[in-house]
């Protein structure tokens, strides 16, 4: 059984997975795979297809002064999640039920279209716009227009212990940075609600804690100057390679325009 299953490998789900995986939780991200979903669940290096893949130029995401290709942003975020330890599968989640209705801490079983069920102690729904698979759990969904949103508290917890919702599905504003931030908030709530030994996910210069006679808190790391420079070198090399050529991928068109 996984510690956490994140349904939806878009902006919010990827951000959540970075935090849960870095905190040492066994994290799987399952994504429906956009418009060409697999007929059964498959292991994948791909996180699926976020609605952000429709964007033509992402210009309001902090850190990119002249904007960034949204598909490149998604690729890099996926790589970061994988580096953190998240695993990816493609498959549409179709239902979620408690393993034991009288003991939710026993976890949940998630059915996927054409694939084996998955079991996880905690579930993060980050699957805008689909929450049909949560109906058996009665998490509390609100219908507005043709869309359903999932009701959550300030940390993304639903009415069902162990089930969370993140990003646009949790009625957050429809912006990538907000979805990413909310995904991080929900990932941290999962970390805090589990028994992970955690304080802050921080990397600090050597001596930041120990120089004050404190132990390095769980989840934190102190690194020396050589290590800092090595990490910077690695990070720059990865980004230089990632940005060296334009991506050979076009924005996905809205389904109602595509057929015209
Ligand atoms: C045309 C367009 C342009 C945009 N431009 C911008 C912009 O310039 N700036 C900006 O900040 N925001 C922009 N956005 C908004 C931004 O894309 C969203 O706010 C953001 O992607 C929401 O993140 P999310 O994680 O909630 O959903 P998503 O990123 O869409 O991720 C949801 C994921 O869940 C998966 N999924 C769905 N159902 C299931 C299921 N049953 N089982 C498994 N997986 C499932 C989907 O495949 C998808 O990968 C744009 C959106 C569109 C449509």
From TrEMBL:
Keywords: Flavoprotein, Oxidoreductase. The keyword Membrane does not apply. Residues 3-35 form the FAD-dependent oxidoreductase 2 FAD-binding domain. It comes from the Archaea. One of its GO terms (molecular function) is oxidoreductase activity. SUPFAM superfamilies: FAD/NAD(P)-binding domain (SSF51905). Transmembrane segments: none annotated. PANTHER family: THIOREDOXIN REDUCTASE 1-RELATED-RELATED. This is NAD(P)/FAD-dependent oxidoreductase.
